[in-house]
Design brief:
The complex is a heterodimer of chains A (289) and B (329). Chain A has 289 residues and is mainly alpha-helical. The two termini of chain A are 30 Å apart. Chain B has eleven helices and 14 strands. In chain B, the strands form three sheets. In chain B, strands 6-7-8-3-9-10 form a six-stranded mixed β-sheet, sandwiched between helices. The longest helix of chain B has 16 residues. Classes of the chains: A mainly alpha (289), B alpha/beta (329). The interface between A and B is large, with 47 and 60 residues.
Chain lengths: 289, 329
């Protein structure tokens, strides 16, 4: 260590040592985002997300390489195939990636005993929740928007670029793509908030996550009033091409988009408010004294 | 904790001095059914305060409470005039915790700078404060290496740099000399003294008595979640010297053992139990007492059921610390 007397800090009044108040919250959010993005883009959990996004998309790459069934004359006939693929992608890859990314926002810091670094800064806990959430949302949304766009284009590519272009520009393709991208973003928004909260509330959040996953998976079998107590029901309502849930599915009128979208956003805000309240009462003890 | 209930501490002119103090007012902390600390009232002035006590005595709980990482179950805490649940406390408090953890993918410099950004400092100020803190702990050469490859001593230093980087008025250090080599220990102690000389608070915990004894202006002795003594080091030491330690012994021939111990001048008092199967002893020489017991038990052919410390007063805490850590003078 160097000569401490030479480097002794000034014992100046508090007000002059503190950061400028103007723009402080913005700088704090950017500071958290910088730290979180590095962790979420390069950390071990990021590779799980990349795999979950990449593997189904790579499977879709096989589709143009295999012979196209004769009953599929063009892209329009293939729209139910993509819709089915997307629902599977939504309920497995996007669900699990959100679980991995958002549930670890607080839980992994508790396990690694590093949460106190945040709690010792002059940071409002609700700002911490929002900044962590937005960082994870940016990562998952970006990765899955790219994966959905790529899988969509691959799904309709076997008929050649000309047909694909016609489907996108002159047909419903572009509208469908935007709808799938929108549902993807909404899924990350909704599932992300739920998993962030579960990561705060439960010491072992895997069990409640498994229960939630099972609930979402059997949603198509539930009566109408129970279906509405899920995220997947509202997301499915927004699909541009309805998906066939099979012979055992209980048919329910889909919720119109003008109810589904604001409803999901309100639900997300409510869950985040709960997470912020929980963060305010959290103590960084890590179960030890 | 919006309505302060602590009676203001005033000087002779009636001016409040609480803005300079760390105040615990009848504070208790429970972890469910488990006691952390119980009914602690303290007024700590600027300077170096040593927290001393055995493992599990409540030192870390006390430190976590004064830094806002924990909130009291009962009572109120104000740190230089700021409530312990206020985010503003982060401006004024730096804390080197017992947790040897950090984001290992960062370099030392990134680690310090990251949390300065989260304090809300602007980029030029972040760079200035980061450089100053790293220089202060003498880690310039390793600052741009990933912390995952740091030695224990380097990790301790970079965590110290992170704790002091925003130039807090209160610096709380939990076992700060752990892992440091003798040279680094001496330099760290110099930093602590400089820090206190600037009129700041420095709270240092240790279960190694002589470390705290060496640097503290005053000490707080804890055991079992209770403050058993506090004040200037010399005052506490005198209190300790005057108070013999109590030991409970249950044995088949208590009176014979008491006589042998009196002969050797190792006890100052013995109270025999009514059943004749035990006694309460008072001694000022615990170490010699235990050595003598090792000789007397076989030579007198005694059957000993129990030998245990019977009190948790300041003397027994001191005895525990000295005997277990080989420490104080």
């Amino acid at each position: 260590m160097t000569d401490s007397t030479a480097l002794a800090a000034d014992a100046t009044p508090s007000s002059s040592r503190r950061p400028a108040a103007t723009g402080k919250t913005r700088r704090q959010i950017l500071g958290i985002a910088r730290l979180e993005l590095r962790r979420q883009l390069l950390g071990g959990r990021a590779w799980i997300t990349y795999f979950l996004a990449g593997a189904p998309t790579l499977l879709m790459l096989m589709w143009p390489l295999s012979p196209v069934p004769k009953e599929l004359a063009g892209p329009l006939e293939a729209t139910p195939i993509y819709s089915g693929f997307f629902v599977g992608f939504l309920s497995s890859s996007i669900f699990l990636a959100c679980l991995v990314q958002f549930m670890s926002l607080f839980r992994s810091e508790i396990i690694e005993k590093s949460l106190h670094y945040y709690f010792l800064t002059p940071l409002r806990r609700e700002v911490l929740v929002v900044a962590k959430y937005l960082s994870a949302l940016l990562v998952t949304t970006t990765v899955f928007l790219m994966a959905v766009a790529a899988s969509f284009l691959l799904c309709f590519s076997p008929w050649g670029l000309g047909e694909l272009g016609t489907y996108l520009v002159d047909g419903p393709g572009l509208r469908h793509l935007v709808a799938y991208l929108g549902v993807t973003a909404l899924a990350c928004v909704g599932y992300g908030a739920v998993f962030l909260l579960l990561g705060q509330l439960f010491r072992n959040p895997v069990v409640p996550a498994a229960v939630l996953w099972a609930w979402e998976a059997i949603n198509f079998l539930l009566p109408a009033w129970l279906k509405k107590l899920s995220v997947i029901f509202y997301l499915k309502s927004l699909l541009p091409v309805p998906v066939d849930d099979g012979a055992f599915a209980v048919l329910t009128e889909p919720t119109p988009w003008w109810l589904s979208v604001p409803g999901l956003m309100l639900f997300t805000v409510a869950v985040l408010a709960l997470a912020a309240w929980r963060a305010r009462t959290m103590e960084a003890t890590y179960g030890a004294d | 904790m919006t309505t302060p209930t602590i009676a203001p501490f005033e000087d002779e002119a009636g001016i409040s001095l609480d803005d300079d103090l760390i105040v615990f007012d009848d504070v208790s902390k429970f972890y469910g059914e488990v006691l952390g600390i119980n009914r602690v009232s303290l007024r700590l002035e600027p300077g170096i305060t040593g927290l001393v006590g055995p493992n599990g005595s409540g030192k870390s709980t006390l430190m976590n409470l004064m830094t806002g990482l924990l909130q009291p179950s009962e009572g109120e805490i104000r740190v230089i005039g700021i409530a312990s649940d206020a985010p503003e406390l982060g401006h004024e408090v730096g804390y080197l915790t017992q947790f040897d953890a950090f984001p290992s993918h960062l370099t030392g410099r990134q680690f310090v700078a990251s949390y300065l950004r989260i304090h809300g400092f602007e980029p030029p100020r972040v760079r200035e404060l980061t450089d100053r803190a790293i220089s202060r702990v003498g880690l310039e050469e390793a600052a741009d290496r990933r912390m995952g490859g740091y030695s224990k001593g380097m990790r301790q230093r970079i965590r110290l740099a992170q704790a002091i980087a925003h130039e807090p008025r209160v610096l709380v250090l939990d076992e700060p000399l752990n892992g440091l080599d003798p040279m680094a220990r001496s330099e760290a102690i110099d930093i602590f003294k400089d820090f206190a000389d600037e009129g700041r608070h420095l709270i240092v915990s240790s279960h190694i008595l002589h470390e705290v004894d060496m640097i503290s202006d005053r000490i707080v002795l804890l055991t079992g979640g209770y403050v058993v003594a506090e004040g200037e080091v010399q005052g506490v030491r005198e209190e300790v010297e005057e108070r013999p330690i109590q030991i409970l012994v249950r044995t088949s021939r208590a009176s014979r053992l008491a006589a042998a111990l009196f002969e050797r001048g190792l006890i100052v008092e013995a109270t025999l139990h009514d059943d004749g199967g035990g006694m309460m002893l008072r001694t000022r020489a615990a170490s010699e007492f235990y050595r003598a017991m090792n000789e007397l038990v076989p030579s007198l052919d005694l059957e000993v059921e129990t030998v245990t410390l019977a009190d948790s007063d300041v003397r027994s805490v001191y005895a525990y610390l000295i005997e277990n850590e080989g420490g104080a003078s």
